[in-house]
Amino acid sequence: MSDTSPAPARATAPVLDVWCELQCSDCRTALDDLRALRARYGDRLEVRLRHFPLEKHKHAFAAAQAAEEAVEQGQGWPYVEAVLARVEELESGGEAFLVDAARELGLDAEEFDTALIDGRHILIVDADQAEGKAIGVTGTPTYVIGGERLDGGKSQEGLRERIEEIADRLLAEQA
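The structure assignment produced for this chain is given below.
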């Protein structure tokens, strides 16, 4: 007689929400920490990009939409990293830069251009921004893990270590 009971459910990875803005130099600084976290935890920690475009940056909302198109095309983080690495070019080049950055990564640049025109990702960006405001996000980067909000807009000092402490605790609780 075979056992037909369902396989035990695998615990889901803890989630690190990263409230980010692609025209923000502080978010660019945070990339090293995010790379280190992704390298350390791999798929044991889900790092999610959340959009929080700031009004002071005129191309931030378009950049958030472009990042969502990159996610659609399977290159979300590589695109985010490419844009953040060149914040000054985004400042001067606007939407044309966003499309060029997509082309440089081998993405469908025409689809990026169309997505920016038709606004297909606006609702995602708006929802992220509204949720961020609701939980008290005021600047970027801001991290949320295990119900704790960590503000990186003032200083990145010690944030990666704090995120690691929380992630390690959450992972230990799952074991």
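Interim note for the steering committee: Residues 65 and 120 are 8 Å apart (CA to CA). The chain is about 55% helix and 10% strand.
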